[in-house]
Design goal:
heterodimer; A: 113 residues; mainly alpha; 2 domains; B: 218 residues; two-stranded antiparallel ribbon
Amino acid sequence: MIDNKTFMIAGLIIAIIIGGLAVFLASGDPDGLESAALFVQGDKTLTGPSPEDGDPEAIGAGTFEYEAPLPDYSTGEEGGKAGEIIAVFAGIIIMFILGFGTSKLIASKKKVA
Amino acid sequence: MHIPDAFVPLWQSAIYWIVALIFVALALRWARNELSEDKIPLIAVLAAGIFAIQAFNLPVAMGTSGHLVGGALAAIVLGSPYAAVFILTLVLIIQGIIFGDGGITTMGANILNMGVIGGFVGFYGYTALKSAGANMYLSAGVAAWLACFIASLAAAVEMAVAGTFPLVPGLIAMGTYHAVIGIIEGVITGAIIYFLAASRPDLLAGEDQQPSGGGVFA
C-alpha cells in the first residue's frame, strides 16, 4: 500500500518513461484508421505493408484546416528527437495538471454545496 | 482511431459534437456526484498515463500500428462509463488543440467513439463478464478488446455516412486492424488493473467491500 503522494509521483514517472520510450520506439506505420483509409483508397492491400509516402487524408473532403502548435507530438521538422521529447513531456505534464485540477475543482465544489 | 478534420463534413461533425456534449454534461454530473477527494490522484495519473501511452504506437503487422485508447481502463478503474467520457474528453481536447492528433471539428466524433462507446462497452462488458464468473483481469482484458473493436466499427460507420470510406471495405479494414490493436488494449488494461490491485486496491472501484481505509491495521 503506497500513499497518495507516492502513487501520483510513481504514476507520473511511469507516464514520462512511457512517453520517452514512445519518442524512440513508436512505430512509424499509420494507425488503424489511417491504414483503413489507405486500404479503401487502393494504396494498400488489407494485410500488406503501407506505402512510405501514402497520404491517408487524401480521401477526405478537407473542409477545415487547423495548425496545431506542436504537430504530431513534435516542435516541428527542425526540432528532431529533442523536440519530440519536449512535446510529449509537456503533454504529459499538462494532462496531469488538467486531470488533477478539474477533478479537484469538481470535488471541492461538491463539498461547499 | 483519431478522426482528422478532413474525414467528416461539417454538418455531420456538428451532430457528433452535440451527442458528445450531452455525454460530457452527464460525465460532469457523474463527477459532481461521485468524484471524491480520494479519487483525484487516480484521475490525474490516468489522464497523464493515457496521454503518454496513446503516443506510443506499437506495430501490429499488416503495415499498421496501434496504441491503447484507455476508455475501458478508465471506466473499469473508476467504476463508471462516465469516468471514461470525463478523462478521454480531457485527453482528446489536448491532443486535438495542441498536438493536431484528431481534428477539432471531429473531436465530438472522437469523444463519442473512444470516450462514450469505449467507456460504455468497456464498463458493461467488464461487469457482464465478471458477473458470469470470469476472473477480474481476464474480464477487463476482454472488455477492453471489445471496446476497441466496437469503437472502430462505429468509426467505420461514421466514415461511411460521411462518404469517406465505402461501408463494407471500411468495416472490414477497421475491424481487421482493430481486432489486432484491441489485443494491445486488452493486455495493457488487464495488466494495469493487476498492478493497481497490487499497489492500491482501495482505488479500484467495486473492490472496496472492505471498510474504507482497509489496509490500515485498525
